[in-house]
Amino acid sequence: MGTQPTRPTRVALVFSGGDPPRSTDVAGLPDDALVIAADSGLHHAMALGMPVDVVVGDLDSVDPDALAAAQTAGARVDRHPVDKDATDLELALATAQAEGATRVVVIGGHGGRLDHFLANALLLAAPEFAALEVEARFDGTRVIVVRDTIEVVGEPGDLLTLVPLGGPAHGVVTDALRFPLRAETLHPGSTRGVSNELTATTARVSLSDGVLLAILPTRKATQ
Asked: What angle do CA 219, 31, 22 make, to 5 degrees?
């Protein structure tokens, strides 16, 4: 039997609303990524000099002049009703998936209403986006969805918290963390996975069943 071809990686950057992101939040991301703005995320993308390919949402928070400038520069606008059944971020993630993205990095989305922030954090690990590699970056914090195995790049001493979602996370194994986990189960509501620490520049987290959010809190870094 021949070897199955590897699906090429296509990265989509999704700019969300909320507090403005740091310039470091987009560091190391590919220049040829598909850029999607979720409503007022357009302002954040433009402030960082990122050309936007698609603007999506009800557009109730977008400055009309900024939207017109994006359209003039070639952006597609997918306008949705204000009375809709999904947040602008969910619409943007769905757009990224429909455009063939295999990896999505959400930029921003922190600040504002707590209910929106919690809903959008949980959205990252929604079953409909299980085929995507999903990461979020806001205010220096990184959030990575773990469904099988990930590698986390940082510095020794960086904090790493593992939060199970939707049920227990089984068979959790970690490498290069101060408090190792060896085929263990993390239960929702438990603080067992909170405030671990990297012991090397690269750590590894894997699990056999379930979903985790791997959270690297804000570093003490300059803007």
From this structure: 25
Phi-psi region of 120 (alpha: psi -120 to 50; beta: other; left: phi over 0): alpha
Sign of the CA dihedral running 75, 78, 81, 85: negative
Cα→Cα distances 53→11, 31, 37, 120, Å: 13, 13, 8, 22
Residue 36's nearest CA partner among 21, 20, 14 is 14
Could you tell me the pTM of the whole model?
0.89
Alpha helices in the chain, H assignment, sequence order: 41-47, 64-72, 88-98, 114-123
Contacts of 98 (CB under 8 A, 6+ apart): none
Q: What is the pLDDT of residues 119-139, one digit of tens each?
A: 888 899 999 999 999 999 987
What gap in Å lies between CA 80 and CA 54, rounded to an integer?
Answer: 13
DSSP 147: S
Inter-CA distances, 124 with 46, 49, 107, 182, Å: 23, 25, 12, 26
Work out the number of other CB atoms within 10 angstroms of the CB of residue 61: 14
